Amino acid sequence: MAESFGRAAPVRHGIRAYLLIVAMWVRSTLTYRASFAIMAVGNAAGSGLEFVTILLMFSHIDELGGFGLPEVALLYGSSATALGLADLLLGNVERLGARVRDGTLDVLLVRPAPVYVQVAADRFALRRIGRLLQAVVVLGWALARVPVDWTPGRVVLAAAMVVSGAAIYGALFTLGAAFQFWAQDAAQVQNSFTYGGNAMLQYPPTVFAKDLVRGVTYVIPLAFVNWLPALRLLGREDPLGLPSWVDFLGPVVAAVVCGGAALAWRAGLRGYRSTGS
Known about the structure:
This protein is about 70% helix and about 0% strand. The protein is built from twelve helices and no strands. Keywords: Membrane, Transmembrane, Transmembrane helix.
């Protein structure tokens, strides 16, 4: 029992430190409320253009890869909501490379808070909530219109899809940041898997080549963000013909990927050499 309390204490300390740093930046942001509102609205409008593109597409067609507008909106909303959560909470870790290059990471090493927490919470960008809210609105609209008989199990599956998707995106942010301990400038590589992956997951898997679908299922498990659980909700077969139980593995995959990201971060931090050494 004492050992379990000992393990829980660093977690509580990290969460508390994260919330304190975030609260500081939120207070700073809300000092200029008009500026914050403009940036948040601009952020929402910018991301909303992606869905406008989908709407324009469906003004000329009835289906895309066998999926109607509400079904594509479900894919868009679930992936964008998951990415919006991860980006809001952990997106700042992609700035790690700049800290490594200019030596400011050394300052975080001597502070009484986990380095990861400080990197993730530093300069917390509350304006990103605009992107998240826009995605939530689309997701809500889609959930109300897709032909799904909403049982308690399907409700849980939909909620787990968003939470697991956010965890997978957060793990990819972390893996990209860990790689920057050595590469020092790999943010664009990371973005190709996070923002690029989000752009792909907004469309049905049936419009992509099977080799690509296999890659984002077996290699980089982006398919578990929304493709597989969404296909289960919609009562559709996945293009790879996987067993039905695979559609429910989102939380398991998210836990495995997060564990791998944590190990990669720890290895990168242990191998870090200050710019002055």
